[in-house]
Amino acid sequence: MEMERTGNLMAAIIFLEVCLGLFRFFAGASIFSFLHVVTCRLPAGEPVVCGRSHCPECGKVLTGFELIPCLSYVLQKGKCRACKASIPPGYLILEVWGGVCFLWSGAMFGWGSWGILSWKAAAAFAYLSVLTVAAVIDWNTRIIYDRFHIMIFLLGVVSFWVFPEHGLWDRMIGAVIVSFPMLALALCIEGAFGGGDIKLMACSGFLLGWKAVVCGMFLGLLAGGIYCIPMMAAGRLGRKDSFAFGPFLAFGLSLAFFYGDRIADWYLALLR
Does the pTM exceed 0.85? Predict the structure, then answer.
């Protein structure tokens, strides 16, 4: 009898944890669903907050059911219910990524007293959100808007209290240790780096500190190289062609936010 009660209690706990996990996932997916609207409307000069979501092909205003993250795309088989036009898979990918980011942030930095996100996890999720929007817009337009740099810088200011382990000098060195060499290369070699990329690394260095931002740059270069090699082999990218580097930097910085200091400490320990 006692074992049966214990088994029922464990089953109930597991069920509640699964429900809470799904809630957290869909919370992140919902936020990133809105951010996808931002990536579409901001470059087009359309109002981001005002205006109902609609099908870009037929203009039909979407219902509540059609706005459910992830599920609506799957149930509609990736097509508009009105005109049957295909919905780009980027919608689904970004919503799933949002759920992953929410769970990733909470798993790394805790869920807080309310069971949603701790302050550190919320800062991590906010940073991933800005990086994602900047990366998508940069991929489509080759532009990283200054407002994203300002957001990351302000997040760095707030993180003085959220991440006190990174002191002022750590952040100041982080702001210049990667961005200044990038600026020097850009001045010497035309098209080496864009201004948006340089500012992204400067403000991210202020947020992350010097160890993590160096690690983020290395991971970004590695990801960019992995992208370029097959593209050049297929003849789709020439040696003198340029491409949006911001998404690869965003990838590296995302990993560096969580693991950058540990990777840097491990590497420095090998050199001793």
Answer: yes
